[in-house]
Amino acid sequence: MYYLWVFLIGGFICMLGEVLLIYTNITSARILVTFVLIGVLLQAFGIFDPISQIARAGINVPIIGFGASLAKGAIMAAQSKGLIGAFTGGLETTAGGIAAAILFAFIFALIFRSKTKS
Amino acid sequence: MQVDEKKRNEAYNRYVKAKIPKTKPWPSLFNSFLVGGIICCLGQGINDLILIWFPNMSEQTAWAYTLITLIFIAAFLTGIGIYDKIGKFAGGGSIVPITGFSNSITSPAIEFKHEGIIYGICVKMFTIAGPVIVCGVVSSIIVGIIYLFI
Known about the structure:
The complex is a heterodimer. Chain A is mostly helical. Chain A has helices at about 1-25, 30-45, 50-55, 55-60, 65-80, 85-110. In chain A, about 85% of the residues lie in helices and about 0% in strands. In chain A, helix 2 (about 30-45) packs across helix 5 (about 65-80). The chains are: A mainly alpha, B mainly alpha. The interface between A and B is large, with 80 and 78 residues.
């Protein structure tokens, strides 16, 4: 049953991105940056976890979840390790995603050719 | 000269406005809603499967594997040229999920392959992902430092 919430909230967030795309003509890089910052803010004010309880993948799969886990890692590590935690925590929790994206992009760039010209 | 330039700019702006492809708002909003929702449901499905197969895994690790799987799928679809087609149909629905992040890294990497491995793939990989990571890291460090003093 919670798949309905996942679909509705995930779809709504993606629709917000499309609204930005249509009405402000901003580039996809700015959209991604905007949503990451929204995620960081949601986590900083402690709103992300309550939403995540209901929305699950609906808010974790959009790039908002990436920003939120950056902020979450930084906050938790800062509270347990002190100042150095604020620096190490964010990338620690998101390292898997970033490293995977780099690795797969590198491998597939070696394998495949650009499709736009053909 | 000044007037001429003004007139030319106006004419140019009119020209650009006429040439920009007009997307009808409602169908594209619906498409992005649909595709975004489906991608999120796919993520939830992968997460549930991982937790069924590995019941002892912590929630955070399961999410990391879920995102890595989605990133892999998106990078592969970008490689075989399908993700661009999805993107044309879905717009924001294919940019906002983590799959869009993966696409934004893989796509320029493939595009600039002909400029070599170092200056093509490795450099161009971060044209879109770079700003995302920079803004995310800077803001998260600021938030972390603020939480030190609360």
